[in-house]
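Data availability (excerpt). The following record was deposited with the supplementary files.
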Amino acid sequence: MVYFQLNRLGFDCGLDKKNCDKYPDFCMECVKNQLEKLGLDLSQNIKITLIDSEEKRLRMSQELIWQKFLDVLNLKHIVLLAIGSGLSIVSYPISGAGVNIELLTGFIQANISFSETSNVSNGSLNHQNNYQFYEFQYENFNILLKNGQFIRTCLVLDHKASESLKTLVTEFISDYENRYRDNIENYIKTGKLGFGRTIDFIIDTFNIKLVFPMVLTHTFLPGTLEKIKKNPIQKAIIDFANEFLASKSVFFINNLLNKVQKIVNIDSNVILYEIYQLLEQNVIIPTTIETAEDRVKNFQEIRATRIANNELISTIIANEDAINELKERAKELNVEEAQKLMNQFIRKAETAERSSVYKEAQREYEKALYLATGFDLEQDIGRISFMVLELDKRIKELELEYVLGAGEKAEKKKDYINAINYYKQGLKILEDVENLNGNESRIRKLEKKISNLQKHL
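Predicted structure:
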């Protein structure tokens, strides 16, 4: 049996206080009884706080998420050190702070040794032991240290740590040592590092994804889009995120937060709460720094190639009369006239896209891009290129949905050859389009499905 401890959980008793004769004098006893029926162990000290309204609960949630965000913005580097040797076992940079970890760990080890063997205060280091935390200055950073049984957690910060961050560090050390005890014991015995896979746990615990580069999903669960449209703040968030993505391959929550706050004039913690809900629903998706760099590089390379070659993204209209006429017409246009005509094509494309007439939208975007590249309108080239790439992704996703659906139907009919054929078409789409959401795991699942179906032949 595995035993879990839960904190910061909310519990709805399911009763209206107006119709409850136990409210408020017997609420604590009633809630404990309900929790015990659910199998929760209340033998330890447990604090239950009554939140008397939905508005108060919402404000508390907003404040909690806002503090999480402030704490992760303050974080620059996380280092886990072995208590015995003082060596770094995990070093995870969160921003380009440029901290020399070897020098830092040596500095830490020297100061911890000094503090543990001397009763003399060293004022020049601004060093203090505060409720089992060590806090001191290192170069331009604030250092927060806390010891566990086997590891020492070191946070490199811009500013002094908040009480909420200190609480989080305390919980983290306990959880980390329990969860990865085998890794730690193996390191103590052999000296071999085996903590690479623990990075995801660190990212989740310290909410580091809040400062990751972000993209938007292209596939919504049923009803999600309708809910967003009914929430004006969430709708504004999505609209402004799309604006960022029109000229860049990723966006950051901090920039999005500032942009929305300037327009809607609502408290930042309220806006962040709505952004957080979209993150929880996978509408806004964090990406790794490496993925973001690849997206930016690919985006810039594609744009540079098109500027140099003034070529169309696809061959869909290469031989059509419309593009041939446009080529002739473009010879007599000035820049202002070209921009005006280009914007007409974009509006037509957007109208067609909203109506799900994707091939027509692609044609109009292609015409707009042809003019933008021909007249060297660099900002418009990037914007339209992104629109075309996103549209192409949407078309590929629809094609993928169709072939996978057809494959499933064939499989149910035990028409294994056709099922394999459709699944292979889906596999090719996934392999060709690198940035479809979660395509690596989908490829593996599809390959396994094809392999299993082939056993029936």
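Summary of structural features: The CA atoms of residues 414 and 456 lie 9 Å apart.
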